[in-house]
Protein backbone atom coordinates (compact mmCIF):
# COMPACT_ATOMS: atom_id res chain seq x y z
CA UNK A 1 0.00 0.00 0.00
CA UNK A 2 1.44 3.40 -1.07
CA UNK A 3 0.42 6.04 1.49
CA UNK A 4 0.76 9.75 2.15
CA UNK A 5 -0.79 12.36 4.45
CA UNK A 6 -2.48 15.29 2.71
CA UNK A 7 -4.64 18.36 2.92
CA UNK A 8 -7.23 17.95 0.17
CA UNK A 9 -8.29 20.98 -1.89
CA UNK A 10 -10.90 19.58 -4.28
CA UNK A 11 -13.06 22.66 -3.71
CA UNK A 12 -10.51 24.73 -5.63
CA UNK A 13 -10.80 22.62 -8.79
CA UNK A 14 -12.24 25.32 -11.08
CA UNK A 15 -9.72 27.92 -9.93
CA UNK A 16 -6.86 25.47 -10.48
CA UNK A 17 -8.26 24.58 -13.93
CA UNK A 18 -8.13 28.28 -14.87
CA UNK A 19 -4.57 28.57 -13.62
CA UNK A 20 -3.52 25.42 -15.53
CA UNK A 21 -5.15 26.59 -18.80
CA UNK A 22 -1.99 28.25 -20.24
CA UNK A 23 -0.11 24.97 -19.66
CA UNK A 24 -2.73 22.69 -21.22
CA UNK A 25 -1.43 22.65 -24.79
CA UNK A 26 2.30 22.71 -24.03
CA UNK A 27 4.30 19.74 -25.25
CA UNK A 28 5.94 17.62 -22.59
CA UNK A 29 3.70 18.60 -19.68
CA UNK A 30 1.24 16.29 -17.96
CA UNK A 31 -1.30 18.31 -15.96
CA UNK A 32 -2.56 16.99 -12.65
CA UNK A 33 -6.28 16.45 -12.19
CA UNK A 34 -7.61 19.51 -10.37
CA UNK A 35 -10.30 17.36 -8.70
CA UNK A 36 -7.47 15.60 -6.85
CA UNK A 37 -5.70 18.82 -5.78
CA UNK A 38 -3.92 18.41 -2.47
CA UNK A 39 -0.92 19.48 -0.44
CA UNK A 40 1.22 16.46 0.41
CA UNK A 41 2.12 16.83 4.06
CA UNK A 42 4.16 13.62 4.39
CA UNK A 43 4.89 10.89 1.87
CA UNK A 44 5.03 7.54 3.68
CA UNK A 45 5.89 5.27 0.77
CA UNK A 46 5.02 1.82 -0.41
CA UNK A 47 4.85 -1.14 1.95
CA UNK A 48 3.02 -2.77 4.80
CA UNK A 49 1.86 -0.07 7.19
CA UNK A 50 0.63 -0.42 10.75
CA UNK A 51 -2.47 1.73 10.28
CA UNK A 52 -3.26 1.87 14.00
CA UNK A 53 0.23 3.14 14.90
CA UNK A 54 0.16 5.54 11.96
CA UNK A 55 -3.25 6.90 13.00
CA UNK A 56 -1.97 7.44 16.54
CA UNK A 57 1.08 9.27 15.17
CA UNK A 58 -1.06 11.55 12.99
CA UNK A 59 -3.39 12.31 15.92
CA UNK A 60 -0.36 13.11 18.11
CA UNK A 61 1.11 15.38 15.43
CA UNK A 62 -2.16 17.30 15.16
CA UNK A 63 -2.39 17.67 18.94
CA UNK A 64 1.21 18.86 19.23
CA UNK A 65 0.99 21.29 16.29
CA UNK A 66 -2.14 22.78 17.91
CA UNK A 67 -3.11 24.85 14.86
CA UNK A 68 -6.85 24.21 14.66
CA UNK A 69 -8.82 24.85 11.48
CA UNK A 70 -7.57 27.73 9.30
CA UNK A 71 -7.88 29.43 5.92
CA UNK A 72 -5.26 29.16 3.19
CA UNK A 73 -4.63 30.93 -0.09
CA UNK A 74 -2.30 30.08 -2.96
CA UNK A 75 -0.49 32.97 -4.60
CA UNK A 76 2.74 31.96 -6.30
CA UNK A 77 4.03 29.45 -8.81
CA UNK A 78 7.36 27.67 -8.91
CA UNK A 79 9.22 24.62 -10.12
CA UNK A 80 11.10 21.72 -8.58
CA UNK A 81 13.98 21.23 -8.51
CA UNK A 82 14.56 24.64 -10.16
CA UNK A 83 13.41 26.87 -13.01
CA UNK A 84 16.50 25.80 -14.96
CA UNK A 85 15.67 22.08 -14.64
CA UNK A 86 11.90 21.68 -14.32
CA UNK A 87 10.34 18.40 -13.21
CA UNK A 88 7.29 19.74 -11.34
CA UNK A 89 5.31 22.97 -11.76
CA UNK A 90 3.56 23.97 -8.55
CA UNK A 91 1.21 26.46 -6.93
CA UNK A 92 2.49 27.67 -3.57
CA UNK A 93 0.68 28.49 -0.36
CA UNK A 94 0.56 32.13 0.70
CA UNK A 95 -1.63 32.68 3.75
CA UNK A 96 -1.78 29.46 5.76
CA UNK A 97 1.82 28.38 5.14
CA UNK A 98 2.73 28.65 8.84
CA UNK A 99 0.13 26.18 10.18
CA UNK A 100 0.87 23.78 7.31
CA UNK A 101 4.57 23.95 8.13
CA UNK A 102 3.88 23.39 11.83
CA UNK A 103 1.75 20.33 10.98
CA UNK A 104 4.44 19.02 8.64
CA UNK A 105 7.14 19.40 11.32
CA UNK A 106 5.09 17.41 13.83
CA UNK A 107 4.13 14.76 11.23
CA UNK A 108 7.79 14.41 10.34
CA UNK A 109 8.76 13.91 14.00
CA UNK A 110 5.97 11.42 14.73
CA UNK A 111 6.40 9.34 11.57
CA UNK A 112 10.19 9.17 11.69
CA UNK A 113 9.80 7.91 15.26
CA UNK A 114 7.82 5.04 13.73
CA UNK A 115 10.67 4.30 11.31
CA UNK A 116 9.55 6.21 8.22
CA UNK A 117 12.25 7.99 6.24
CA UNK A 118 12.89 11.63 6.99
CA UNK A 119 12.33 14.10 4.16
CA UNK A 120 15.49 14.86 2.24
CA UNK A 121 14.41 18.39 1.29
CA UNK A 122 12.88 21.45 2.90
CA UNK A 123 9.08 21.43 3.08
CA UNK A 124 7.43 23.80 0.59
CA UNK A 125 3.64 23.65 0.95
CA UNK A 126 2.30 23.44 -2.61
CA UNK A 127 -0.16 21.89 -5.04
CA UNK A 128 1.35 20.14 -8.06
CA UNK A 129 -0.04 21.67 -11.27
CA UNK A 130 1.95 19.65 -13.80
CA UNK A 131 4.86 17.29 -14.30
CA UNK A 132 7.35 17.94 -17.06
CA UNK A 133 8.11 14.82 -19.10
CA UNK A 134 10.43 16.50 -21.62
CA UNK A 135 11.75 20.01 -22.15
CA UNK A 136 10.21 20.90 -25.53
CA UNK A 137 8.16 23.72 -23.96
CA UNK A 138 10.66 24.67 -21.26
CA UNK A 139 10.83 28.34 -22.36
CA UNK A 140 7.02 28.59 -22.28
CA UNK A 141 6.89 27.06 -18.81
CA UNK A 142 9.62 29.44 -17.60
CA UNK A 143 7.57 32.37 -18.97
CA UNK A 144 4.51 31.05 -17.08
CA UNK A 145 6.60 30.89 -13.90
CA UNK A 146 7.64 34.56 -14.28
CA UNK A 147 4.00 35.75 -14.38
CA UNK A 148 2.19 36.83 -11.24
CA UNK A 149 -0.58 34.27 -10.78
CA UNK A 150 -3.98 35.29 -9.46
CA UNK A 151 -4.65 34.42 -5.84
CA UNK A 152 -6.41 31.06 -5.55
CA UNK A 153 -8.69 30.47 -2.60
CA UNK A 154 -9.28 30.96 0.20
CA UNK A 155 -9.97 27.41 1.23
CA UNK A 156 -10.98 26.24 4.69
CA UNK A 157 -8.62 23.57 6.04
CA UNK A 158 -10.01 21.53 8.90
CA UNK A 159 -8.59 18.04 8.45
CA UNK A 160 -5.68 15.91 7.33
CA UNK A 161 -6.25 12.77 5.31
CA UNK A 162 -4.31 9.54 5.14
CA UNK A 163 -4.50 8.62 1.46
CA UNK A 164 -3.63 5.60 -0.61
CA UNK A 165 -2.13 6.28 -4.03
CA UNK A 166 -2.31 3.74 -6.83
CA UNK A 167 -0.14 4.45 -9.86
CA UNK A 168 -1.78 3.74 -13.23
CA UNK A 169 -0.91 4.44 -16.85
CA UNK A 170 -3.34 7.39 -16.75
CA UNK A 171 -1.80 8.85 -13.60
CA UNK A 172 -2.38 8.18 -9.92
CA UNK A 173 -5.72 7.40 -8.34
CA UNK A 174 -6.37 8.24 -4.70
CA UNK A 175 -8.48 6.75 -1.94
CA UNK A 176 -8.98 8.26 1.50
CA UNK A 177 -8.05 5.70 4.16
CA UNK A 178 -8.73 7.91 7.22
CA UNK A 179 -9.58 11.50 8.16
CA UNK A 180 -8.17 13.44 11.09
CA UNK A 181 -9.87 16.65 12.26
CA UNK A 182 -7.80 19.65 13.22
Automatic annotation (TrEMBL):
Its EC number is 3.1.4.58. Pfam families: 2_5_RNA_ligase2. It catalyses: a 3'-end 2',3'-cyclophospho-ribonucleotide-RNA + H2O = a 3'-end 2'-phospho-ribonucleotide-RNA + H(+). GO terms for molecular function: 2',3'-cyclic-nucleotide 3'-phosphodiesterase activity; RNA 2',3'-cyclic 3'-phosphodiesterase activity. Keywords: Hydrolase. A motif (HXTX 1) lies at residues 38-41. It is an enzyme of class 3 (hydrolase). The keyword Lipid metabolism does not apply. The active site is at residues 38, 126. It comes from the Archaea. The keyword Metal-binding does not apply. A motif (HXTX 2) lies at residues 126-129. Belongs to the 2H phosphoesterase superfamily. ThpR family. Hydrolyzes RNA 2',3'-cyclic phosphodiester to an RNA 2'-phosphomonoester. HAMAP family: RNA_CPDase (MF_01940). This is RNA 2',3'-cyclic phosphodiesterase. It comes from Natronomonas salsuginis. The gene is thpR.
Amino acid sequence: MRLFVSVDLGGLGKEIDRLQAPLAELSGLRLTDSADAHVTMKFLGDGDHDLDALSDAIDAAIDEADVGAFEATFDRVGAFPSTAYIRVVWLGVGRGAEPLTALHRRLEAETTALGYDAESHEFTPHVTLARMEHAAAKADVQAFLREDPPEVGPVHIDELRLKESTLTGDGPTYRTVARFGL
